[in-house]
Amino acid sequence: MKKPAAIVLLGLGANLGDREQALRRAIALLTERKAIYAPTLSSVYETEPVGYTDQPPFLNMVVAAGTLLLPEKLLAVCREVERALGRTERAKWHEREIDIDILLYHNRIFTKEHFSVPHPRMHERRFVLVPAAEIVPDLVHPVFRKTMAELIEQCSDSSGVQKVGPLAAEQGE
To answer: What angle, rounded to 10 degrees, do the helices at 19-32 and 71-84 form?
Structure first.
């Protein structure tokens, strides 16, 4: 196997339809399309919505994986997978069939017109930090120079994050 161009941290979430199936299919499609390989999956967490709260709870998880794609190409594949899974554009922070965010891309820091890495609000969100700290507690945020474990300890977000368990295998696997 080739050496990865980068280790990435992706945040996945869904609160419409079969939420667990959406998470499972997103990981499968990202892998099939060679956007990521050798993924390490956090547990699945049921979380309270943040921002716009009049909506169903989310299932969230974090995936750490290798990628051979540059950030903008990885983002394009993430958006393609979201569309393939039926994501409909809605107002910011509203319901999602699936949401895939690039949280970290190796130790790089960059801002483009349409996205920034590290994700600009990941340090403020328990629904991202709790699963990230589960699988990569010692990973250092390149801006704050703190580990995921340290960031979760300092996070002021009080929204509910309840562990559901591992992502179940698809029926028939």
So the answer is: 130
Query: Is domain 6-165 in CATH 3.20.20.300, yes or no?
Result: no
Q: Which mean pLDDT values do the consecutive 10-residue runs of the chain (173 residues) have?
A: 76 97 97 95 95 91 96 95 92 87 94 90 96 97 97 94 89 55
Do residues 30 and 36 make contact, with C-beta atoms less than 8 angstroms apart?
yes
For the whole model, what pTM was predicted? 0.93
User: Could you state, in order of their start, the residue ranges of all structural domains in the chain?
Assistant: 6-165
Structure tokens at 36: 């990521």
Using CA of residue 103, residue 11, residue 68, residue 78, what is the dihedral sign?
Answer: negative
**∠ CA(158), CA(115), CA(1), 5° rounding?**
100
